[in-house]
Specification:
The N and C termini lie far apart (about 55 Å). A hairpin with a 2-residue loop joins strand 1 and strand 2. The chain is α+β, with helices and mostly antiparallel strands. It has a three-stranded antiparallel beta sheet.
Length: about 90
Amino acid sequence: MENVKPVVMCAVCDKPGAYLWDLEVGERKLPVHRGCGDVAKALAPNGENPRVRPSEWKIRTDREAAARNFWVEKFKTAKEAASQKAPAARSA
């Protein structure tokens, strides 16, 4: 159950579901929805440079999905290549 979505409250709107994006303000990382992070970034005072970045959970699950898709594709192409090389069955 590692890929169960965590219940994370958004730092801007205080609603659940803010597990995909982090608003980085200086050294702090605040969980936000993408839209809430963009609004907070636009309303930041001069001199502050907040960034909206993918959370560690999103990065990890995206990498896991990419690895699964990579191997699925490799096995699919290998299976197709093997079926093309196999001689046709002889009929008696």
